[in-house]
Amino acid sequence: MNWFIFSAALVIALGLAGFIGFLFAFARGPSVDITRQMLRPSSIYYPFRETLGNGVKWLREHDFEHVYIRSHDGIRLHARFLPGRTDRCIIMVHGYRSKGENDFSCACHFYHDLLGMSLLITTQRGNGKSGGRFVTFGIRERYDVLLWAEYIRDRMGENIDLFLTGVSMGASTVLMAADLPLPACTRGIIADCGFTCPEDIICAVMKKRFRLPKFPLLYIVKLYARIFGFPLGSADVRKSLANTAIPVQLIHGRCDDFVPCYMTEQNFAAAACEKYVFYSEPAGHGCSYLCDKEPMEEAIVKFVTEHMKNI
Known about the structure:
This protein is α/β, with parallel strands linked by helices. The protein contains twelve helices and eight strands. The chain has a single domain (37-213, 233-307), classed as 3-Layer(aba) Sandwich (Rossmann fold). The protein is 45% helix and 16% strand.
């Protein structure tokens, strides 16, 4: 009887711990505020506070249109749209519990003013003004990207040059969307520091940040993810890139201590499409553009101009 009670208590405790871990990783939570982060001397953004501050100011000075669509599973999704001077558009997808202001403020001027692109800065499900109870590490979000691409095609026309870009989880999201039936006007994907698949990044964070073993917590978390309708094994960047013809430009910082650089190496190796990679030697997570602005812009301009139809 004592062994039965002990076993039952252990199962309950593990189930509860797994559910807490599941909520910690996937439940809707507050977004990081880069305007606060960049002022902390310990933050990786602190050395770039002036550049980031100017980028945030640029965003706030422009009159973005707030637009909404309904996701495939009924969630109201939010984005901000700013028209450009050409028949080109870039859809921007932010990272885990982040927002467009964080991940793209420093590059919006480059895409909009220098490349003439219209900007669609999306808000991922489970964040900000978009609905949704869970962040699903790209599993459901990839279908949101498909709908946003269709929205832009319907709004701007079938003959535009459409590009997708993302940072961190946003990078993996746009790459996971690569083998979906994206509009024919989709010319390329630019992905900065994306992971390979949800399970891999969760394992990496558990080990690196929390010193937790894979067994048994991960398997309990995976069970809850399946119960709530997004099995962790149902999406993988490598599989998507092996089944797409859309060109990709991969980017990663060699000093990234959140999403390991080897994940981009694996994604690049798996890609059967036309592919390019840019590594920033000094960059931490999501900081390649900040650390290597000129060579990054040169790589992106080359990628965009080689694949757009509208000169």
